Every structure is written in structure tokens, then in C-alpha cells.
Amino acid sequence: MKTVPHANSLRRAPVQRRSAERLTRILDACADLLDEVGYDALSTRAVAQRAGVPIGSVYRFFGNKRAMADALAQRNLDHYTARVTGRLRETGGGDWRGAMDVVLDEYLAMKRTAPGFSLVDFGNQIPVGSGHGEPNTRVADRLTALLSSYLARNPDEELRRTFLVAVETADALVHLAFRVAPEGDERIIEETRALLRAYLARVLD
């Protein structure tokens, strides 16, 4: 079963397995419809119909489509973190260049294959309120927590700021790569990789 979003993104957290499975179907339907019709044309009624659940089931979890898309973004981030963690377990710790390749490659893989990701990814199209809730801040915080132990670094403010700058930079350039080519322009992606390595070397070497 796919990861269930954090309870703070839901009106009501699922308790029973059946309820969690229903929530998963709702988010899967939301992701598919985002690819088909876009965010503006997305509706809770269409999601309910696609998921095969009563409209009341959608409103049990979400007050509106924005909350639903934000929950999908949080699920995407959980899935991304799990993918990166799994890849890093296969390698020895300490190689930050290899770790950054994993971080970028897994983002590109989700960009190319995850339903709805091109619009929502980790929440870039969904305003979430305070600055501490901004999507790239979420990603940088996750990477700081994940990579600090892998790299045997203190997860201090300097490391967090470094990862935030790297995430903001990669985000802008990857979006450019996918505007230039549907599957991401490889030359821009390689320039992104080189730029990130040059920047991170100042702190991580």
C-alpha cells in the first residue's frame, strides 16, 4: 500500500485498513486526474467518481481540492524520501557526490513516471501558508535529516541552509529542463548536476 499522508494534512486520519485503502484510492485518482485535466479543472466530485467512492468519503478526509492536492504532495515527498533512503542503503556512507546523484536521479525518475507529479510534485503549485511550510523547505529539511547521518555531518543551520539553496537551484533548473524537453533535456540536467557539485563542494568537501 502507498504511504498515507501525515494526519495534519487530513480532516480525519484513517484508523482502519479499509479507510486507509479508500484514502489511497482517492489520492491515486487525484493524481491521475491532475495529469488528464490539470489542477484548475480538478474537482472533488470527479475524484470521487474515479476512485469509486461516495463524495462524502472525499470530504471526510479533505475540505477542498487544494487540501487533497497538498496531501498528494506530502505523499510524494514520503515516497521520494523512501526511494532515496533505499538507494543510499545500498551504498557505503560518506560519498556526498554519490548521494547527491541519488537525490537528483530519484527526483527525475518521479518527475518522469509518478502520476500528477508534473503539476504537484512536493507542493509547488499548492500554497501552504507559512514560509516554514514551503515545499522546497520541506524537501531541504528531509534531506538534512536523512543525509546528515549518511555523511556523518552535524544537521546544523549551515547544512540546512546549504541543502535549501541546492534544492531551490535544482528545482528551478529541472523545471527548465522539462520545459525544454518532455522527458527533461539531458544537457540541462547534466549542467544542473555539475552546478550542484561545485556549490556543495564548498561545504561538504
Helix-strand sequence: HHHHHHHHH
Radius of gyration from CA coordinates = 18 Å
**Distinct helical segment count:** 9
For the record, give the distance between the C-alpha atoms at the N and C termini, rounded to a whole number: 39 Å
Low-pLDDT segments: 126-132
> Biggest sheet, in brief?
none
- Approximately what portion of the residues adopt beta-strand conformation? under 5%
What does this 3D model show about the protein?
The protein is mostly helical and 205 residues long. 69% of the residues lie in helices and 0% in strands. The protein has 9 helices and no strands. The protein has helices spanning 17-37, 44-51, 55-61, 65-89, 96-113, 117-120, 135-150, 157-180, 186-204. Helix 2 packs across helix 3, helix 5 packs antiparallel against helix 9 and helix 8 packs antiparallel against helix 9 (186-204). The longest helix is centred in the middle third of the chain and has 25 residues, at 65-89. The termini are far apart.
Describe the secondary-structure layout.
Elements: H1 17-37, H2 44-51, H3 55-61, H4 65-89, H5 96-113, H6 117-120, H7 135-150, H8 157-180, H9 186-204
Helix pairs in contact: 1-2, 1-4, 2-3, 4-5, 4-7, 5-9, 7-8, 8-9
